[in-house]
Design a protein that fits this description.
Strand content: 5-15%
Distance between the termini: 72 Å
CATH class of the largest domain: Alpha Beta
Bound molecules: zinc ion
Strand order of the largest sheet: 2-1-3-6-4-5
CATH topology of the largest domain: Aminopeptidase
Number of domains: 2
Order of helices and strands: HHEHEHEEHEHEHH
Length: 247
């Protein structure tokens, strides 16, 4: 009887020691991993850059319409932009938003459509230009006549060399985390994209996907997918901040 009890006790001690050792090892691993991560991003956390988040279109301006004839670009843009804002804020990054609800931002609500559109886009640019240490992050959805075309693509302003760096980080992040099949390259903006053409601060436009592509539209209509896109944009911004703060 006594012998059996001792064996059981030994087993118990061995089990406790094994579990304790496993716990300590996993704790140390988690500690050092977290320490490495915080060291890697330490410059990001002290960054005084302010990300101006521009949810494209809004209010009277719906942007493009999805292949289903119902989904409006302005709504997808707003949802992703609000998620990007919440995540960047959680990381302690300064942000300013052009809009957080369905509205346009023209100076005078009595303006007619074309004049209102011009005023709206100028005000978005003015917000980015008047914000200290800003980078402009404009969120849009694409559209093309060929319904097979899909995939995110980031456009960048040629006026500030940091724009291409930010665009590349976001493009890489979206491809790595969400769209491994995406072979698109970042693209320098032409004068057709007013806000990028005129911006002097680092400025990019993320075209998250094609609403004209039925499958990509279905993905973008899913909340979980929009979370993934927002998260990958945020990781791209953090990588950019890490890179630029190191210089
Ligand atoms: Zn758009």
């Amino acid at each position: 009887m006594k012998l059996i009890a001792t064996k059981k006790a030994k087993h118990k001690i061995t089990l406790v020691l094994t579990l304790s050792a496993a716990f300590i090892i996993s704790y140390l691993f988690a500690f050092f991993y977290a320490k490495t991560a915080t060291d890697t991003y330490s410059k990001v956390f002290s960054s005084d850059i302010c990300v101006v988040i521009d949810a494209g279109h809004g209010g009277f301006d719906s942007g493009t319409v999805g292949a289903d004839g119902i989904t409006l670009e302005k709504d997808i843009n707003l949802d992703i932009a609000n998620r990007v804002n919440a995540m960047l804020t959680a990381f302690g990054i300064n942000t300013v938003t052009v809009r957080e609800v369905d509205k346009s931002v023209e100076s005078d609500s009595t303006l007619k459509h074309k004049s209102a559109k011009i005023s709206d886009i100028k005000n978005r640019l003015a917000l980015a230009e008047s914000t200290d240490n800003s980078v402009l992050l404009s969120i849009h959805q694409n559209h093309y006549s060929d319904p097979d075309i899909n995939g995110a693509q980031v456009f960048y302003s040629s006026n500030n060399p940091s724009s291409a760096v930010l665009a590349q980080q976001i493009q890489d992040s979206i491809v790595n985390l969400v769209q491994p099949e995406n072979k698109r390259s970042i693209k320098e903006s032409t004068s057709s994209i007013y806000i990028l053409d005129k911006a002097s601060v680092p400025a990019v436009m993320v075209e998250c996907g094609f609403l004209s592509n039925y499958n990509e539209l279905q993905q973008l209509k899913s909340k979980d997918y929009r979370k993934k896109i927002a998260f990958s944009i945020v990781i791209g911004v953090l990588e950019y901040l890490k890179q630029t703060e190191e210089v």
